[in-house]
Design brief:
Blueprint lengths: L9 H7 L4 E12 L6 E12 L3 E5 L6 H8 L7 E6 L2 E2 L5 H10 L1 E4 L11 H11 L5 H14 L15 H13 L5 E5 L7 H16 L3 E6 L2 H4 L4 E6 L2 E7 L2
Parallel strand pairs: 3-8, 3-9, 6-7, 7-8
Antiparallel strand pairs: 1-2, 1-4, 4-5, 9-10
Length: about 250
Amino acid sequence: MTAPLAASPGQFASTRSERPPLIELESIWKTYGMGAATVHALQAVDLRIADGEYVAIVGQSGSGKSTLMHILGCLDVATSGRYLLDGDNVQDLDDAALAAIRNRRIGFVFQQFHLLARLSARRNVELPLAYAGVRSGAERRERARSALESVGLGNRLDHRPGELSGGQQQRVAIARALVTEPAIILADEPTGNLAGDQSAEILALLDDLWATGRTVVLITHDPGVAAHARRLVRVQDGHVISEEVSR
């Protein structure tokens, strides 16, 4: 099992409610096609997520939750509306600026691990640092080592993905998401390819990351996964239909 990270949820409870929203979506629409073929994947979505929150966006296939994830992660841009990320209007940014946000301010964890098979765990984790312009190889190696140790893989630095279990590969992916110290961890069905015991370990790790003050946004159709979050946002037919505090 992954060792808990040093902190407790209560350490941040008093400050979270005082922080301004990290994410603000105002009347976000995402439309595909034209004329009779027009599909409104998102319709007038309003959403706020505070710095340090743990939020699950829940919906079935076709609900719009994946489109919403792509908008939040700056993998796509809205057709209309306003998206403020820590005060910056994402709608006004060019491709290079969006790529910089994806590299430095958002850490992605996907159902597919997207690790390079020929590279060791440490070199996989180093890659975002290279893209971010960290030129010192020694610094990249040290930061990757530290990130892997934080997810309980300090003894697997030189193992390639094929030498690791599914749960270990996902932990490498989480370390890669953490290594640039992003403001947000965006996890899209992070346990979808894992067995039950491995899923529990990954969810416990995400819980620990939230407890140390990180903002965690889960995208899932699974109520059991969503239950780890502190707020549930339900999406259906392109609309946010409800929001509730889960615990």
